[in-house]
Amino acid sequence: MSEKIDTLLKESRVYQPTAQTKAAAYIQDYESAYKKSIADPEGFWGDVAKELEWFSPWTKVLEWNYPWAKWFVGATCNIAYNCLDRHVKTWRKNKVAIIWVGENDQERVITYGELYRQVNRCANALKKLGLTKGDRVTIYLPKVPEQIVAMLACARIGVIHSVVYSGFSAPALANRIQDAEAKLVITADVGFDRGKVLNLKSVVDQAVANSPTVERVVVLRRQTPGITLSAPKEIDWHDWLKDEKAVCEAEHLDAEHPLYILYTSGTTGKPKGVVHVHGGYMVGTYITTKYVFDLKEEDVYFCVADPGWVTGHSYIVYGPLLNGATILTAEGKPDYPNPGRWWDLIERYGVSIFYTTPTAIRLLMRYGEDWPKKYDLSTLRILGSVGEPINPEAWEWFHRATGENKPIMDTWWQTETGSILITPLPTVPLKPGSATRPFLGIEADVVDSAGNSLPANTGGFAVIKKPWPSMMRTIYKDPERYKTYWNTIPNCYIAGDICHKDEDGYMWFMGRADDVIKVAGNRLGTAEVESALVSHHAVAEAAVIGKPHKLVGESIKAFIILKQGEVDSPALIQSIKDQVLKELGKIAVPSEIDIVPSLPKTRSGKIMRRVLKAKELGQDLGDISTIED
Ligand code: WTA
After folding, report:
1. pLDDT in tens, 113-136
2. For residue 496, how far is its CA from the centre of ligand 1 (angstroms)?
3. Mutate to test the pocket of ligand 1, among 408, 414, 431 (most ligand atoms within 8 A of CB)
């Protein structure tokens, strides 16, 4: 990649916090709070940790053995205990924890007390199946409360959960089950997508057939009559829990005990299992949820993510529950049954904090401002955006459509970082399109490939210069891959994003520097899609690029060389798309496929996707001296 990256985006508007926002905010003066936190990060994080409950204290806040970190050394804790028991011991016992709305408008309201009992029953049921501390469980569920129950139940007894997004197809699921060597899979008969029924159980059947470590499959049957299960391997969720006691003591775990593995895409075809641990992750998600969204006791917090992705892990499940918040979570899409869906839910439940994505905002923007205008959105107080850069136009629309006086927290972070790292706080002046400044305790910079700080308005690599509590601890079974995050640029964690800072130190993220693409905020590796493409019988070679797209941020374009004797036709293109659907799932299917006679390669045979992309976008091809053909 060229050393100097032009910074194209120029945005000059600044929005100051309203008096109302200022009056409510925990952090009144970001600048001084930040300076103080950075002068003594361990002191800062240690103080945050003291707001939570620990079974035994730490001897040291941080042990930093570059690039390996341990936080809250020697302490014991349990994140599920902090999400549940800590509240159930107080008046919050009968506070609503989760309001769940199904795609068909079915409603379930679960208090902290009830969630505690369900989690305990599930934890006891896990134990009865012989699962113990350190075992792995794969959770392949649609967005239903049982997904949250299962996650917390695993955490409660030190079992490591691996949640897989229910849009992934059988081979992708099998891959993740096998890498984690899961003993149990928890799934449902079906999920729903814009009225369409998705048969999840049959996906699991195919995946489990190739996964010898799986001993049992628990199935949540949502439809009546229920599908037939084959005992003893397959167990009904409700039968599984019904005789279990509602009390199960939380395991006292070392702060560094793994909480979960979450698979995410990188630059190779094999997804990486990002590992997070109980102690540090608990501290990071707790405090970012509290300060970024200025979360108060009486808020109703609505995050539209799916717990199948990291945003759901950190900002539907762990962060909000650690804070004792009331969470609204809804199955389904923003435009189903109509584009008023989310605005309607905000009005119906009096939502005060609304955390969404740029792609969803752009989708709703297409339907116009009349939709939000139909609803009473006056309960909203704080807004959030995550997953991809938000373009100033979408930012401005979101701001206007929701009443023009609610601050938008453009939160930058990653599966690997565990919690939000670059973000405004509600009192920070906002510039549409900028994720603004580092969170308290986080030292961030924009550097060149040698690690030198770059001057204002010069594009470079976004890096974090010090460890932080919720950072991933390793890549499951692949410590070498973990090390590359810290070894590529000396003394820095490299995120893989291109960014620049402006003269006020505001950070402007401009997309990825590597072969990761973001389609509707979903993270995909070009290599993963390419390997799905070449698994088609007619495909000899494939190269994939991300192409700027007005709605979904980036779309997938594939260039394909056919095997000899194969002929280009619409039917063939369709069958190639179907192959990707079968291998990976709907989110990975290229929107365009071009059949080409050759691909640009280096002399060592590496496909130069950069050249394909520049050509596609009509840009300067850059240095092509290493090209073979
Ligand atoms: C991108 C999602 C710009 C970025 C939480 C990052 C963003 C990747 C933002 C991580 C944002 C996320 N502005 N880009 N506010 N938030 N990204 O692991 O490229 O699915 O590296 O985590 O999303 O994606 P992941």
Report:
1. 999 999 999 999 999 999 999 999
2. 10
3. 414
Residues 86-122 have pLDDT tens digits of 999 999 999 999 999 999 999 999 999 999 999 999 9
Cα 161 to ligand 1 centroid, rounded to whole Å: 22
CB contact at 8 A, 71 and 300: no
If one residue of 361, 386, 464, 500 were mutated to test the ligand 1 pocket, choosing by the most ligand atoms within 8 A of its CB, it would be 386
Q: Give the span between the Cα atoms of 106 and 43, in whole angstroms.
A: 46
E-assigned strand segments in 476-623: 493-501, 507-512, 516-519, 522-525, 539-549, 553-562, 592-595
Straight-line distance from the first to the last Cα atom of the chain, in angstroms, rounded to the nearest whole number: 20
Backbone angles phi, psi at 342, to 5 degrees: -70, -35
Among the listed residues 314, 336, 357, the one whose alpha carbon sits nearest the alpha carbon of residue 148: 314
Radius of gyration, CA atoms only, the chain: 24
The whole-angstrom separation of Cα 275 and Cα 135 is 14
What is the DSSP-derived secondary structure letter of residue 402?
T
Residue type at 495 in one-letter notation? A
Rounded to an integer, what distance in angstroms lies between the CA atom of residue 333 and that of residue 96? Answer: 24
The residue ranges of every structural domain in the chain are: 516-616
Question: What angle in degrees, to the nearest 10, is found between the helix axes of 526-534 and 570-583?
Answer: 120
Would you tell me which CATH number, out of the four given (3.40.50.300, 3.30.300.30, 3.10.20.30, 2.120.10.80), belongs to the domain 516-616?
3.30.300.30
- State the pTM of this model: 0.95
Interstrand relation of 507-512 and 493-501 (parallel, antiparallel or unpaired)? antiparallel
